[in-house]
Amino acid sequence: MQSRGFMPSRHRAKAVAVTRSKQSDRTMRAVAMALLALAFVVAQAVAAFAKPESLAPLAEKISPSVVNITTSTVVEGRTGPRGIVPEGSPFEDFFREFQDRNRDGEGPRPRRSSALGSGFVISEDGFVVTNNHVIDGADEITIEFFSGDELKATVVGTDPNTDIALLKVEADGPLPFVRFGDSNSARVGDWVIAMGNPLGQGFSVSAGIVSARNRALSGTYDDYIQTDAAINRGNSGGPLFNMDGDVIGVNTAILSPNGGSIGIGFSMASNVVTRVVDQLKEYGETRRGWLGVRIQDVSEDVADAMGLEKAAGALITDVPDGPAKDAGLMTGDVIMSFDGVEVEDTRGLVRQVGNSPVGATVRVTVMREGKSQTFKVTLGRREDANGAEPGESDEPEQEKEPETKDLLGLTLAPLTDSLREELGVDGDTVGLAVTAVDEASEAYEKGLRTGDIITEAGQQQVASISDLEARVKAARDAGRKSLLLLVRRAGDPRFVALSLEE
């Protein structure tokens, strides 16, 4: 028998192994904790390196290139006292005498009005970028540099579409300047610095982050960087810098209920500005590509009505005389790609076309009646484009249908000479006039109104009510849930998809 308390050697070896295993686990945990602590310290050091304690060194480096801009404009004005006084006042005779003398004399004298803004130098030979609205209509432009020196500037060219202006000053020597950076590389959350002349108080610096990208305000070619760096009146035309000291935006607008900064400012992206500046420098004007189509976004219901796999591309609503018409593009085509780049929506297409060289031949891929087709289009110049003039037609007048009909929530009547005259449309316009809209219908919800003209249904022309009924039947037979209508109002076309569910 084995006595109690006696442990065989094999059991002792097992106990020792368990003890060593526990010690090893504790050691590994300690090492892991040490590594975590080290990683935290390293991360803190990296963060401290990435975000400097002071922006002063960067501000000192780039501030000499930032300028204040003062403009002077001669406007019609009034001289001397002018006001309203109570009847019987002792001043009544004085004001009447002055007004009579002013009325009988030369009239109001011109006066000089001043405005303030900001800008920045982009070359040592004196090219200066600012906003167009800062210098628009100015008779005299004065550039004040960070050193306090002042020079008169001349306008090289302007682009109201992007609100950019290029100025030129003549200096005795090379000027300090800054370079444009790549605005596409700016990320939401990146640090930025805004510089300028806010509220006419002189040179000022504010810092913040990129709050959002690709903002659109009201322009065709808008691509704004939104920032919470303080931007106020007078900052217009000033630069928005990244932490490398490169200009990634031109401060242009603020969103504010009271006219002051609330942390929502907008800077035109540098990748837009550089193209404009290059053209203004070379030509004194912009030269944007022109495709020659009217377009609208493809909504989900429009995509369903056209049998498209997804709601993407740009739907052509009209093709006036121009490059697209010459190449064979048609109303109802959906532009899926332009010059090898997929088209997501109309805004992207407009910007891409505008950035393309005038005279370039590009491939445009469209979906037409469910099939993909590619056309070669030689782009025109947007600035030279005019609206297509209405053409003459030798087609005979369509037969009148004496009655109207209610269909798809609309009361419709075929166009007659009297209706054309009443609606102010050309004599060769063919389609159905909307004479009433059921306010409880989907058609009313989607914006159709009395006076609209339906010229196509299911991407085919309709000249009579029977044509529209045939298109409705064909769509239902094909299993479509909606029918695509081409609707014109005051000459402007748009596509509307209406549900066919009864």
TrEMBL record:
<dbReference type="Pfam" id="PF13365">
    <property type="entry name" value="Trypsin_2"/>
</dbReference>
<dbReference type="InterPro" id="IPR001940">
    <property type="entry name" value="Peptidase_S1C"/>
</dbReference>
<keyword id="KW-0574">Periplasm</keyword>
<keyword id="KW-0720">Serine protease</keyword>
<dbReference type="InterPro" id="IPR001478">
    <property type="entry name" value="PDZ"/>
</dbReference>
<keyword id="KW-0645">Protease</keyword>
<keyword id="KW-0677">Repeat</keyword>
<feature type="domain" description="PDZ">
    <location>
        <begin position="280"/>
        <end position="355"/>
    </location>
</feature>
<dbReference type="Pfam" id="PF13180">
    <property type="entry name" value="PDZ_2"/>
</dbReference>
<keyword id="KW-0732">Signal</keyword>
<keyword id="KW-0346">Stress response</keyword>
<dbReference type="InterPro" id="IPR036034">
    <property type="entry name" value="PDZ_sf"/>
</dbReference>
<dbReference type="InterPro" id="IPR009003">
    <property type="entry name" value="Peptidase_S1_PA"/>
</dbReference>
<protein>
    <recommendedName>
        <fullName>Probable periplasmic serine endoprotease DegP-like</fullName>
        <ecNumber>3.4.21.107</ecNumber>
    </recommendedName>
</protein>
<keyword id="KW-0378">Hydrolase</keyword>
<dbReference type="InterPro" id="IPR011782">
    <property type="entry name" value="Pept_S1C_Do"/>
</dbReference>
<feature type="domain" description="PDZ">
    <location>
        <begin position="395"/>
        <end position="490"/>
    </location>
</feature>
<comment type="similarity">
    <text>Belongs to the peptidase S1C family.</text>
</comment>
<feature type="region of interest" description="Disordered">
    <location>
        <begin position="377"/>
        <end position="404"/>
    </location>
</feature>
